[in-house]
Predict the structure.
Amino acid sequence: MPTKMLQIPTPDGQADAFAAFPDHGERRPGVLMYADGFGIRPVIRELARELAGHGYYVLVPNLFYRHGPAPVIELPEYIGEEIRPRVMAELMPLIQAHTTERVLRDAEAYFQFLTTQREVGAGPIAVTGYCIGGLLAMRTAAAHPARVAAAAAFHGPVGADGPGLFSKITARVHLGHAEGDMTPEALGELNQALDTAGVRYTSEIYPGTLHGFTMSDTDAFSASGFKRHWDRLLPLLDSALTGN
């Protein structure tokens, strides 16, 4: 599985990024993957490689490149309960500084990069994200309805921008919520907003999961939730990007 570390020109500098793609010489659909707040690290690179193995060119940018190359802060190999408060205290200023305007400027640069790669096909792309990356995926899908055919968010605060965001989305959407993040009542309200906006979506709570359940280097990891995430993500991308 070929992988690369890249430097992507943006209006605000050079964004370092990780890419994984099949080694078959064919042009493949592009997937822009937004990491969680902990950023590019071994578990994220493995997620990208796994997805690339299903036939996609996967690009994972460093969300916080303005503050330095990934990892922007020092991370332990395992993020457990004791260390999490310290890590989050360092991350929160970076997350708060990553405004919608920055997100969309960066997304334009990432799309431009994908269109110039010989391994990437000319069709629409998908965006997927984890935690805060899930919200960024939804913002990107809303800002680029002609380019984004599928969007997925896992344990992400996707309702943070309000229902107006959903009205701009034409992509097919899957939202996988942690049981620890979302009550059934809140899920009903979110799904009603998606219905009102006319979004083609699935949106569900993954049973027995906590925020961050896809990340195997944290104490929130759920093997069943992780499998369910693949069971939902892969058919979405196959249907939207390859017509299968």
Notes: The chain is about 35% helix and 20% strand. Strands lie at 3-10, 13-20, 30-34, 57-61, 125-130, 148-154, 172-178, 201-206. Residues 3-242 form a domain with the Rossmann fold fold (CATH 3.40.50.1820). The first strand starts at residue 3 and ends at 10.
